[in-house]
Amino acid sequence: MINGSDYGREYVIFRDDVPDDQDDPSTLGFQYNVNNRDSTVFTAGGRADAQFLEQKSTTIRNDLTIPDLEWMGMHTIKMGAKYSMQNYFVQKDFGRNPTFIYDIEGRSEINGSRTVPVAVNLGVAVPPADVDNNVLGLYIQDDWQITDKLEINLGIRWDYEDNAVNNDYRTPDSIRDMLAAIQNLPNYDFPSYFNPSDYVSDGDRKAFKGAFQPRFGFSYDVFGDEQTVIFGGAGRYYDRIGFNFAFDERFKPFQFNKTIYFSNTGGPAGGQETIAWNPAYLTPEGLDPLLAASPGAGEVFLVKNDFEPPRTDQFNIGVRQKFGRWQTALTFAAGHTEGESAWYIANALTETGGRFNGPSPTSVGYSQFRNTIFFQNTDKERDYKAIYLTADKPYNSADRWGFNLAYTYMDATQNGSRDNGYGAFDFDYNTPELSPEYRSSTDERHRIVASGTLGLPADFLLSGIVTLGSGLPYNINDCPSAPSTGPNICWNAGNPEKRAFLPGLNFAYRQIDLRLTKGFDVFGGQRVELIADAINIFNFTNYKSFDTGFNSARYGAGTEVYLPTRSFQVGLRYSF
């Protein structure tokens, strides 16, 4: 029996209010930002925005292995538990460092002064979030050696979080009343895919308890000599959702920036109603009363009460075959993901369109909110199929050469928002079901990576990596074959132009890297190694952005390249 435990504490801080260049820092905090109304002359001072994200966690984990249990073969049981107490502190001060705009010419048609700012941009202060989240994970697995040839792996995992998506958040009355006012409008109702009661929370959201994740795997040694092995597996996997996603629900409705205009005496100036300048306005605290008297509008974000995290079902089957010193493998894999989140527009005019034409908060008397109401939709899906082929001959001191080849074929599709990540927006379709199924942005159909090592005289080692790919797709604008129910765009339908690598072999991505090393044993088991690298030695141009206009004369031409271009570097490695 093997039992292992660990205990850990973690403290992570992300700050976004420090100078970008540590060698030449600017002064933090307020300074004048000098512009004119037509073009920026120069900007000085600290950033207008600041973020402070802090995560503290205390984690206890225990793993237990029970080997050599005999029943219809041999069993090795593995089980474990993990408990993590986490605290998140999130403070976002967007626009809280005032940005003052000056007219350096003091033009009378603006405000007639070089010393009194024309305007200030300032963001309202929003209270930070300070929340706790307890995370629990349990698993058990049985590695069952049925015969000398056949092994089966059976397992299940369960994960739980008690506050993954703002479970104790209570929807403010102003948002509740605004949604009710829109719903009660004559001749209008929210589209069927948005029911306000599914999103309005009383602070008692239920934590998701259904994250059971079964796994199955097997391997079969056909001849019992480890030369030919058939293997496969299937399983379900749940993904966590970052707290920053749900934070928008409590932050965005009350965060806004305003521009306030000044002059010496106040009143109309430069086509704007202005406020008489007072030096007290040089600080956020001095400006806050003006901000309160000139309210802005936040954005409404609504998280689903019965939210379930995204899940992926994966499957693979393959064979490993040895040919002398070569180990080869061929694997077929597939996966299906459901439940990805994205922000969609709730107050659309119709079921299938009118995303920006429905009744707005302002139209029912709630001018403190912007026109668009965003809600969390979890109907986005992804599918992928892949083939992996590998061949590997390890390097050894006898024949002094090694080689590895990996080929990947991928076919990945999705629906819904073309944005990636949990904070994705979709302004093109009312729901994911109305979008076409299209290639994912990471769908590179063919990719080859070959690497080798060769021993040279005087104990030099030459190694290299060749990377070849068919390239990532790009959108086609003004696409003649775009579906009539959406924008005139074919998502990720463009393929990069392929260029010659070898006669008859063309690829969109080409790169060859070489490395030469020489090692020296010094004394006491210490070793020094000299390294010289040539990166992208043939200086292939690999594009990552393209002219996407179908009617453009340069349609498909590259506009931005991947780095690195050809470069060289030397290094020294010391080991002991």
UniProtKB/TrEMBL annotation:
It is found in: Cell outer membrane. Residues 40-488 form the TonB-dependent transporter Oar-like beta-barrel domain. Keywords: Cell outer membrane, Membrane, Transmembrane, Transmembrane beta strand, Transport. It is a multi-pass membrane protein. Gene3D superfamilies: TonB-dependent receptor, beta-barrel domain. PANTHER family: OAR PROTEIN, TONB-DEPENDENT OUTER MEMBRANE RECEPTOR. This is TonB-dependent transporter Oar-like beta-barrel domain-containing protein. It comes from Brevundimonas mediterranea.
